[in-house]
Amino acid sequence: MRRGPGLAGVNRNRITKERYAAKGTELADAEISHMVEQLESFKHYLETFASKHQSDIKKNPEFRQHFQKLCAQIGVDPLASSRGFWSEILGVGDFYYELGVQITEVCLATKAKNGGLIALDDLHKLVLRGRGRNRQDVSEDDIVRAIKKLSILGSGFKVLPLQERQLVQSVPSELNMDHTTVLQTAQKTGYTTYSSIISELKWDKERVKHLINYLIQEGMIWVDNQDPKEVLYWVPGFFPDNS
Question: Burial level of 65, CB count in 10 A (0-12/13-18/19+)?
C-alpha cells in the first residue's frame, strides 16, 4: 500500500507554492511599477512636445489631428478636463467647448430644413463661415471630436458613418442600423424610393414602409409625389448648402 506524502511533505508543498505566489506578485508589482513610470515619462515628454509646438497645435488642424492621435496612443485625453496643463497651455478644452457651442447653433438653425440630420462636410462649411476669417481654423476631425464631447451630455448628438459621407444627428431620435442603411441608399442622388431600397437591400415592403414612415415622422426625409413613376423620398441632410 502506497503511503501519502505525510505532514512534512504537505507543509513543504504549501510553503513552496506560497513562495512562488509571493515571487509572482513581486514580479507583477515590479512590472506594473515600471509601466507606470514609463507612462509618466511619456506624458512628461508629450507635455514638453505640446509646450514647444503649442502654436502649431492651435493653428494647424492637420497637426492638431496628429497630436490627438499621439495622445490617444498613450491614453491621454487633452479634452477630458477644462483645468490643468492642457487647458492652460493649449486651451484645447476651451477650443472644443466653443466649437461645440457653434455646432449646436448651426444644427438648431438648420433643424427645420433637415430634421436634425446634416452632412458632416456641410456642417463643417457652415461652422467655418460662422467663425469668420480671423478665428482659429477647424477641420472635420475637430468637428467630430467636439460632437463626441457633446454626446456625453445625452443631447442626441452623434456621427452616423455612411459609406461615402457622414451624417451628423443632432436630435435624440432612436435611429437603428436599419434607419441608417435606408438613409445610405440616398447618398448619391439625395433621394431614395421603395423600389430602390427593396432592390438594393432585398428587404420586404412592410419592413421598408415601417422605416420610411418613422423617418418621415421625424422630419428626416421629405415626401415628393411629383414624379409620375413613383414617390421619391428626399433626405434634406444631403442637400448641398448653397446659401
Answer: middle
Lookup result for grid cell 414602409 = 209
Q: What is d(CA 40, CA 79) in angstroms, rounded to the nearest whole number?
A: 18
* pLDDT tens figures, 89-133: 555 567 777 888 889 899 989 888 888 899 999 999 999 888 876
The CA angle 108-160-139, to the nearest 5 degrees, is 70
Q: CB neighbours of 225 closer than 8 A, spacing ≥ 6?
A: 231
Report mean pLDDT in 10-residue bins for the chain, 243 residues. 52 63 62 62 69 72 76 66 53 73 89 89 91 77 86 77 85 85 90 93 93 91 91 88 54
Exposure class string for 28-54: b at 16+ Cβ within 10 A, else e: eeeeeeeeeeeeeeeeeebeeebeeee
Q: Which of 201, 231, 235, 229 is nearest to 216 (CA)?
A: 235
Q: How many other β-carbons are positioned within 10 Å of the β-carbon of residue 199? A: 11
In angstroms, the CA 93 to CA 111 distance is 27
For 116, phi and psi rounded to 5 degrees? 95, 10
CA atoms within 13 Å, Cβ hemisphere of 24: 6
Yes or no: say if 98 and 220 are a contact pair by the CB < 8 Å rule: no
